Please model this.
Amino acid sequence: MLVDHRRDVKAPPAVPDIDWAVSRECQSIRRQHTEAIVIDGIRLSPEAILETLEKMDAACDGPAFERRRDERVPYRRLGLLLHTFHPDVTLIVPSRDVSLSGFSFLYRNLLYPGTNCVAELIAPNGQTVRIRGKVVRCRHVRGIVHEVGVRFDRRLDEV
Model:
């Protein structure tokens, strides 16, 4: 589904534990890039997204997850902006978690490992951080839902 990027987006009703506000930066980018293709990255209700993320978090246990270099923390945003190259599109996706070296999000299709991208993360102080990265994994979760992992080109503490 293509999103009309020339109109302001109205935020859905508030649901606990998720930041539903589509950032002003997102709206500004849509106005500045009238030729850009902006795609709604997933076609699920907010409740279904939250349920999927909670099930995925509950399943994360065991030695494979203990070997990670950087601790992951939940990072729940529905309106995360992600610009991919090849194809050259801007996606609005729900995020799952973030670490100093990368983050993950849900998407409705396969994104190939090696795909370069730029993500716009919102820091705890409210400022937008644009950071380049590369898709390093994409796995099927259920139905049309895929979890995509991105490794940052530079660590977040170096930005």
Q: What stands out?
A: Residues 129 and 157 are 11 Å apart (CA to CA).
